[in-house]
Specification:
Number of strands: 8
Number of domains: 3
Strand order of the largest sheet: 4-3-2-1-5
Structural class: alpha+beta
Radius of gyration: 39 Å
Order of helices and strands: HHHHHHHHHHEEEEHEHEHHHEEH
Strand content: 5-15%
Number of helices: 16
Length: about 425
């Protein structure tokens, strides 16, 4: 092991050839010592850089794992390379300079700060790697970890700041921590959103409330789109008009949020829309009308079955089928509802395993609402809207066949 006296004597011997009055406190001695430290550190940095860029890159290229590729992508090995020469200068400075010198104190504190910052820089790359590897896995669909990664970065940064301050003040980090109690209120005020976001992130992850990629809707904030990132303090939502809404993370648990994940994970996307039938067009069906309806493939069996039920009812009640006051008859609205139901059941782009019905809603001053309730098998927005439009195009076009009219308010103004 080298001793300080040995190194200093060797250096003074060399410098005495130039300056016979050289001492440990002379500027020539200290300048030469600093230059030697810088040269040695530079050589070590280049060697470390060669190892990191040469050997490690080859090992990463040969490896079949993805995590080392992500480490290389985020510059983890390159950032670690900055730590080695700083440690060398920190350890070698006592061999060249006396601990009573001001230059010694400046170099030691500077190197300690540089080491701490380099470690924080490398840890940031490591956390970014963990986040990217996790987001590429199936677990990311269950719970996002962006908030926790940001918390970890914040903790590392706070520790680094405490170490830097303690180094500059020559105080123990524990002593600084004990003094933080006096400024707790200020810290709570400064880190209010951070604390609320951290607590919200735990609840969001534990309850699987919102994940990256979910479609959420917050009417209060005008956000309606896909979640890009669930961070420690903010959530980024890309709206369908491609704008970005940024809102505090804790709003996901404090305000009403509609999450469309259930629809995305289900077997279809709901179609729920009504057309309004003009009540004046609703009427009974006579024999000739029913003969025309029998030609419609979807309801021919339905009409035959209904007519048979009516005949049985009239025979049981001793009612003449020509008795319009006491007999039962089919209506055009009921037959049309049966047709639409059969049409939906035969539609190739609807999910037959989910709820499917055509129902009447209470009549209003704008007609009788006839609501179609079913689920489109294709959940893509554009395709879904196309299927929905095709269904109602057909339904509206079939109204005249059943002697029905859609209600439309007529203005008396020319």
């Amino acid at each position: 092991m080298l001793e300080r006296e040995t190194v200093q004597n060797w250096l003074m011997t060399k410098l005495s050839l130039i300056d016979k009055d050289v001492t440990e406190q002379s500027w020539s001695f200290q300048l030469t010592a600093v230059l030697l430290l810088i040269v040695f550190a530079y050589v070590i940095f280049k060697f470390t850089h060669f190892v990191m860029r040469g050997r490690i890159e080859k090992l990463v290229a040969k490896s079949k794992n993805n995590w080392d590729d992500e480490l290389q992508k985020h510059g983890f090995f390159k950032r670690c390379g900055h730590i080695v020469p700083a440690i060398f200068i920190y350890l070698m400075t006592p061999l060249f300079l006396s601990d009573s010198d001001l230059l010694y104190s400046i170099i030691q504190k500077s190197m300690l700060i540089y080491i701490v910052l380099s470690v924080v820089w490398a840890c940031s790359a490591l956390f970014n790697t963990v986040e990217d590897v996790y987001n590429a896995s199936e677990l990311a669909k269950r719970a996002p970890i962006t908030g926790f990664i940001q918390v970890a970065k914040l903790i590392i940064l706070i520790i680094a700041i405490l170490l830097v301050i303690s180094s500059l003040l020559n105080k123990s980090p524990l002593l600084l921590l004990s003094g933080l109690g006096a400024v707790t209120a200020i810290l709570l005020l400064l880190f209010r959103d951070t604390i609320l976001g951290f607590v919200a992130g735990i609840q969001i992850a534990a309850n699987r409330m919102v994940n990256t990629g979910d479609w959420i809707e917050l009417q209060k904030y005008g956000a309606d789109g896909e979640v890009l990132e669930v961070g420690l303090t903010t959530v980024k939502v890309q709206n369908w008009d491609k704008t970005i809404s940024t809102l505090p993370t804790y709003t996901l648990i404090s305000d009403s949020v509609k999450n469309w994940r259930g629809m995305s994970e289900s077997g279809g996307r709901r179609i729920k829309r009504a057309i309004r039938i003009d009540i004046k067009s609703i009427d009974f069906c006579d024999a000739s009308t029913l003969d025309q309806y029998k030609k419609i493939r979807y309801i021919s069996e339905y009409i035959e079955r209904k007519l048979e039920q009516l005949r049985e009812y009239h025979n049981q009640q001793n009612i003449d089928e020509q008795d319009l006051l006491n007999g039962r008859r089919l209506t055009n609205i009921g037959t049309f509802r049966a047709y639409v139901t059969a049409y939906l059941k035969n539609h190739p782009q609807l999910n037959k395993d989910m709820t499917m019905m055509v129902r009447q809603l209470p009549p209003t001053e704008t007609g009788l609402p006839l609501e179609i309730y079913c689920f489109c098998a294709d959940k893509n927005w554009v395709n879904y809207e196309g299927v929905q439009a095709d269904i109602f195009d057909h339904v509206l076009a079939m109204l005249p066949v059943f002697n029905l009219r859609a209600y439309q308010r007529v203005s008396d103004q020319s």
